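Open question from group meeting: does this chain pack into something compact, or does most of it stay loose? Before anyone orders reagents, we agreed to write out a predicted structure and look at it together. Recording both the input and the output here so the notebook holds the full record.
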Amino acid sequence: MHIFPALLSLTSGTLEGQSVLDIGCNCGFWAIQAVRAGAKKVVGIDASVKNIEQANFIKNLIGFDDHISYHVMDVYEIETSDLESFDIVLFLGLLYHLDKPIHALQQLSKVTRKIAIIDTHVIPESKPMLEILEDTSDEQNKLNGICFYPSVSAIYMMVRHVGFDQIYRVPNLSTNLPADYLGGWRVVFIAIKG
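Structure tokens returned:
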């Protein structure tokens, strides 16, 4: 996938010495990739108890128990949690599932020291808009009954609004990607502070 090559292009090809937070970590795939890329500290959070149980099982199975910690927490709880800030924050496949997307991005900004990677479904609209849809995710990953699908220009506007100085859309550099990326229905963004 094109998420990590884009991130590593900003970090001299490694995450060595970096701290990483994976918001909505699911079963921990990207947290594991961060450790493999050299991150010194990786924390994953997810609102689903089942997802965190799976993530802990996998990290123990592959011997990453000392490298990653997982916690049951949703993005809105960041405000009241003991989480510190992280060099890199992954926010992958979550934004469009949330009923308060700007509030969620504010929480993302609070814990991001340098770089946030945002992966989201988008709508094909040139104006900054959010489309309200019914959330049809499986029960394990459903957060509420509705989703807000943003337009690309809405992402730029919202991310700047919450405190990021720069935002870039990651181009699809391969045709070996899932159809939603190739069709422009899902996009990866890099948001940078400073």
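Observations to bring back to the group:
The first strand starts at residue 19 and ends at 23.
The beta strands are 19-23, 41-46, 68-72, 86-92, 112-121, 130-134, 146-150, 166-169, 186-192.
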